[in-house]
Amino acid sequence: MRPPVFILGLQRSGTTWVANQLAALPGVAAVQHPDHQGVHESVFFSHFARNFGDWSDPAARAAFVEAFGASDYVRLMDLPTGMLAVEARGAKSYGDLFARIMHDFTTRQGCDLWIEKSPHHTLLVETIVADIPEARFLMVERGLVDLVWSRLHGFGRRPAPGLRFAADTLRGTVVAVLHRREMHRLMRVVLMPGQGMLVRYEDLTADPEDGFKALRDWLALPSDGAAAETAYPPNSSFAGSKRPEPGPGFRTLVGLTAALAALVPLPWLLHWQRRRDAARGADWPDWVWSQTGYVPPERTPSIKAP
Known about the structure:
Layout: E1 5-8, H1 15-23, E2 28-29, E3 32-33, E4 38-39, H2 58-69, H3 72-77, H4 83-90, H5 94-108, E5 113-117, H6 125-131, E6 136-141, H7 144-153, H8 162-190, E7 196-200, H9 201-206, H10 208-218, H11 248-261, H12 266-280
Helix pairs in contact: 4-5, 7-8, 8-11, 8-12
């Protein structure tokens, strides 16, 4: 079994497109469904592993197994009956359990490499490495103006006008700068040589053939031919409508905010983001149990800020 690959990057960076392209390659396993535009996010480390308590607590493990077992992600894996509970009893940690069930899923798919794509995991690489030391990380970054613009319009949103729009732009730019700086830090000082790869969305779209050949070379997968063809359509923020273009005022605001955010020490930005996460509590995405109808416990513990 090859080392698994986590695909990271802030939402709207192109992570879904990259994941779908890789999942189309022979030998690569990924949990997929059309309702999720292809590769499905597990949000395992960002939500499941952080919202049920210490792994050593039997009650926490039982609540976790119930909720995770009811998720679309596990349903689409088609695990053998009772396997999740059995593996949970033998696993040393949340991450160890995830690696075990992904290994089983990959083997049953006739593959030797599994990939997982959850933008929420981008700030949790060190947590993942602690549980799955062999993991590798493919990180996707995108130009700030297009990234922030897409995030403001994505997910069915209609940007608020006036000062609210300016405030959302400021916050969105700081979040984007934080994720970009963290990915570069991971490449410089955290990950071992060859354990991480950082790619630019614009470079991949400008030359997909060479870009995805480089990714396949990094993964030690067959590199002949053009980029793999995914069966899933592009996941655009502007599907079904003409894309509005960001104006000069928006570009200036993003540029100035990014320049100021670049001066803030990265630990301060990380602390700010963790406090935001704690204030939002569990904040489960509405698609986690969309096919099963499971409702998480009302008193699920909130994510704690360190």
